């Protein structure tokens, strides 16, 4: 099996196991391959140093990275087709003590699911549907890496597109999934296309709705707020642990409190939670065929209207039934979530 066939088999096998990421970790013995399944890393195989090095170089080549550059991180994307299905892969390299470490984020193409299908409690889709149909303003979706923000954002965009004929534009780093009907622009810092520069150009292209992959810096935050104030609906992700924390994060990025209060329509914090498998009687087996299509469902805390206004007037929001911890408690009480989830920490948990 040549190196290209090996890579394709590795990715296809990971997708079949519903892995979200593949990690290639070089060490003194070779290259360890691990897959993240339902938030937990599992060892898959170990490659020799020679084969691992060739695989990493091949990945960099086909994704369009600079093969000779090993001193700084690089991010690109590629597509693999198997059996008529397209798998979008985000490739990230990071310099290590031995070889470069590589992480592949996997996005098997499938039609965007309805919002109600994403959540443990389908009623949580209604506030998001209301937000995405706002005529203008700013909507923030926050949570840690791997919380399902991208899936939720694309489902919100398709919810809007189903009801209106509009110019929906996205600015992403990189474009993780190509979608018909959306005008998608990819960040290219070498060419001078940063989030801030791309957003300025995008505003001259007559958009109705703007999706920003992530608000990272003060300049991007300022332009996003100005776009929302000028009559556009702006949807973006933001790294914050809570929905209230997203508001404070925007103010930390230099956004005036009164301006933010004027444009912010809603703030949503999301987590993916392990769903109880009725056949396994607890934590679902990795190869369980009787479980639902998704072993994890989203729970979210949504601040809007009076609850959002409370964030601007009170520095600390007390726990309430609609908070993420409140949703987890409710899921445990109803038997949807195993009680062990409450003690878990890390990527596979709600905290």
TrEMBL record:
SUPFAM superfamilies to which the protein is assigned, alphabetical: P-loop containing nucleoside triphosphate hydrolases
The Bacterial type II secretion system protein E domain, residue ranges: 203-217
UniProt cross-references to CDD domains, sorted A to Z: PulE-GspE-like
SMART domains with a match to the protein in the record: AAA
Lineage: Bacteria, Bacillati, Bacillota, Bacilli, Bacillales
UniProt cross-references to InterPro entries, sorted A to Z: AAA+_ATPase, ATPase_ComGA, P-loop_NTPase, T2SS/T4SS_dom
Database matches in NCBIfam families: ATPase_ComGA (NF041000)
Organism: Alkalicoccus urumqiensis (Bacillus urumqiensis)
PROSITE patterns in alphabetical order: T2SP_E
Family, similarity comment: Belongs to the GSP E family.
Keywords, comma-separated and alphabetical: ATP-binding, Nucleotide-binding
Superkingdom of the organism of origin: Bacteria
Protein's name in the database: Bacterial type II secretion system protein E domain-containing protein
Molecular-function GO term, any one: ATP binding
A GO cellular component entry from the record: plasma membrane
């Amino acid at each position: 099996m040549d190196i290209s066939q090996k890579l394709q088999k590795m990715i296809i096998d990971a997708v079949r196991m519903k892995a979200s990421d593949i990690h290639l970790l070089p060490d003194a013995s070779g290259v360890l391959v691990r897959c993240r399944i339902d938030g937990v890393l599992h060892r898959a195989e170990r490659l020799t140093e020679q084969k691992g090095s060739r695989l990493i170089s091949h990945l960099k080549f086909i994704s369009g990275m600079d093969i000779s550059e090993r001193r700084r991180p690089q991010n690109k994307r590629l597509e693999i087709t198997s059996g008529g299905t397209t798998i979008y892969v985000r490739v990230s390299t990071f310099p290590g003590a031995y070889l470069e470490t590589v992480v592949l984020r996997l996005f098997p193409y499938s039609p965007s699911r309805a919002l109600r299908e994403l959540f443990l409690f389908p009623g949580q889709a209604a506030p998001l549907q209301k937000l995405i149909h706002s005529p203008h303003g700013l909507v923030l979706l926050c949570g840690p890496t791997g919380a399902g923000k991208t899936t939720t954002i694309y489902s919100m965009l398709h919810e809007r597109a189903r009801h209106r004929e509009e110019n929906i534009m996205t600015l992403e780093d990189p474009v993780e999934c190509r979608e018909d009907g959306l005008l998608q622009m990819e960040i290219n810092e070498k060419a001078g296309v940063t989030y801030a520069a791309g957003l300025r150009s995008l505003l001259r292209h007559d958009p109705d709705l703007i999706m920003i992959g992530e608000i990272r810096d003060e300049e991007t935050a300022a332009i996003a707020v100005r776009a929302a104030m000028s009559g556009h609906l702006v949807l973006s992700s933001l790294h914050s642990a809570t929905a209230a924390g997203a508001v404070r994060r925007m103010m930390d990025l230099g956004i005036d409190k009164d301006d933010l209060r004027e444009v912010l329509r809603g703030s949503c914090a999301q987590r993916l939670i392990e769903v109880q498998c009725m056949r396994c009687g607890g934590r679902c087996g990795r190869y369980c065929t009787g479980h639902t299509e998704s072993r994890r469902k989203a729970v979210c805390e949504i601040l809007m209207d009076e609850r959002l206004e409370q964030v601007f007037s009170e520095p600390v929001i007390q726990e309430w039934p609609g908070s993420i911890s409140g949703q987890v408690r409710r899921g445990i009480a109803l038997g949807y979530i195993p009680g062990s989830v409450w003690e878990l920490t890390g990527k596979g948990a709600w905290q």
